[in-house]
Design brief:
about 375 residues; mainly beta; five-stranded mixed sheet; four-stranded antiparallel sheet; about 45% strand
Length: about 375
C-alpha cells in the first residue's frame, strides 16, 4: 500500500461527532460518537497503527442517546464530554455530560466480535453538565492545555463555565454569559483561544462571530456579518495570537485578524456546499483542513498568512563561504497559497475533520454515513515544510 493511501473505517451507525484524544501523545487515537435512534449509541475509540497501516477499535456504549458532539480532556486520556439528544415522551433536549472510559476493558473481546456492541462496556458517567436552569446544549470545549478541571459549555444562548472537582465527578457552574439580541440568537460553535493565558474564547451565532473574556464573561470584539449565511465552525491559529478562521453555509472559509475585523484577511471559496469544519494544524499553521457537505475534505496551504511565510528561517550560525554564495544567488521566494489536496473518499456530508494530536502529518475525517477516513499530508509537502 502506498504511504499516502487513505485508510477507511466504517461504523455501523450514522455519525457526526469526532475528536482526537488530546491527552494521548503517543498513540494516534480518535474518538467517534454515533447517532442511532433504534440501537444503543456508542463511542468508538480508534487507534491508527502507523507502521502496519491498520485501524484498531474499542467500542463503548453511550447509553443516554445520540451523540452530537464529543470533546476529549486535555489532561486525562480516559475522560471525555459528550453532547447528546435525550428523548422522553414529553420532549427531546440536548444535554451534556462528562464520562470516563473504563480503566479495565477487554480489547481482544472487542476486536473478536463483528458486532462490537454485543461485548462493549458502557462508559462510566462522571457527572452531568446541568444546573437545572439551562437547556439545549450545543457543544463543550475544554481549557486548552489545562489540567482538565475547567471547561465551557455552550447552550443555545448561554456560555457556561464549569469547574470540575478532583475526580471529575462533580461540575460546579462558576460563571456564565447570555447571548442577547433581536430574534433570539442561538450559538452554533465556540472555541477557546489558546493565547492570552487562555482568557478569551470566540463564539459563532447566525452570521456573527463574537470574542469573550472568560474571566468577566464580557464581550471583547464582534464581527458582524462575518459570513453571508450561518457560521458553522471556528478555530484559532496556534502560532499567531490574533488570527482566527471561520467557515459557514455560504461555502466560504475566512481568515480574520481580530484587531481589525472590518474585512477578512483572506477568503477561500473551494467548497460547493456548506462548510462544516475548519482546523489549523496544531504545529504548522499554514496547513488548514476543511470539510463540507459537498462530501469533500480539502487541505489548504495558507503560507502567506502563516507564522512562517518564508519557510523556516535560515540558520544564521552557519556562515560558510559556500552558503553565502548560495544565499546571494538564490533569494528565498515565498511559497504561494493554494490547495494541497482534495480528498474524495466520502459519499456523504463530511461533518468533521480533525488533526491527530500525536502525529502532525495525519488527519481524520468523518461523514454522516459513518465512514471515518485517515489521510496523511503528502510527503513532498511535509519535507518542504521541514527542510
Amino acid at each position: 500500500m502506498e504511504d499516502d493511501a487513505p485508510v477507511i473505517y466504517g461504523l455501523e451507525f450514522q455519525a457526526r461527532a469526532l475528536t482526537p484524544q488530546v491527552a494521548e501523545t503517543d498513540a494516534i487515537r480518535f474518538l467517534v460518537g454515533t447517532q442511532s435512534l433504534k440501537f444503543e449509541n456508542q463511542i468508538h475509540q480508534i487507534d491508527f497503527d502507523d507502521e502496519n497501516n491498520i485501524l484498531n477499535k474499542n467500542v463503548f456504549l453511550h447509553q443516554p442517546g445520540e451523540v452530537w458532539h464529543v470533546s476529549a480532556s486535555p489532561a486525562d486520556k480516559a475522560v471525555l464530554t459528550t453532547v447528546y439528544n435525550k428523548t422522553s415522551e414529553q420532549k427531546a433536549e440536548m444535554c451534556g455530560a462528562v464520562w470516563r472510559i473504563p480503566s479495565e476493558f477487554d480489547a481482544s473481546a472487542n476486536d473478536a466480535q463483528d458486532d462490537a456492541s454485543a461485548s462493549a462496556q458502557a462508559l462510566e458517567l462522571l457527572c452531568h453538565l446541568d444546573d437545572g436552569n439551562h437547556s439545549n446544549m450545543v457543544s463543550t470545549v475544554w481549557e486548552p492545555a489545562g489540567d482538565g478541571k475547567k471547561l465551557i459549555s455552550l447552550t443555545e444562548n448561554n456560555i457556561l463555565m464549569w469547574d470540575l472537582d478532583v475526580s471529575s465527578s462533580q461540575a460546579k457552574l462558576s460563571s456564565s454569559a447570555t447571548l442577547e439580541g433581536k430574534g433570539n440568537p442561538k450559538f452554533t460553535a465556540g472555541r477557546w483561544n489558546p493565547h492570552h493565558n487562555c482568557t478569551q474564547m470566540a463564539t459563532a451565532n447566525d452570521t456573527t462571530i463574537r470574542g469573550w473574556d472568560v474571566r468577566t464573561m464580557q464581550q471583547v470584539y464582534c464581527i458582524d456579518n462575518a459570513h453571508g449565511q450561518l457560521v458553522r465552525e471556528l478555530d484559532f491559529n496556534p502560532n499567531k495570537q490574533y488570527y482566527l478562521v471561520s467557515c459557514g453555509d455560504d461555502c466560504n472559509v475566512k481568515f480574520w485578524d481580530v484587531r481589525n475585523s472590518t474585512e477578512p484577511v483572506l477568503t477561500l471559496s473551494e467548497h460547493s456546499h456548506w462548510v462544516w469544519s475548519v482546523r489549523y494544524n496544531h504545529f504548522h499553521d499554514q496547513l488548514v483542513l476543511t470539510s463540507s457537505s459537498d462530501s469533500r475534505v480539502i487541505l489548504h496551504n495558507m503560507v502567506s498568512i502563516s507564522s512562517e511565510p518564508f519557510g523556516h528561517l535560515i540558520d544564521e550560525d552557519d556562515d560558510s563561504e559556500e552558503d553565502e554564495e548560495n544565499k546571494k544567488e538564490k533569494p528565498r521566494e515565498p511559497e504561494k497559497d493554494g490547495v494541497i489536496g482534495t480528498y474524495e473518499e466520502h459519499e456523504d456530508s463530511v461533518y468533521a475533520a480533525e488533526w491527530s494530536t500525536a502525529d502532525p502529518w495525519l488527519f481524520a475525517s468523518l461523514s454522516y454515513d459513518g465512514r471515518l477516513v485517515i489521510n496523511r499530508v503528502p510527503k513532498a509537502v511535509k519535507y518542504k515544510i521541514l527542510l
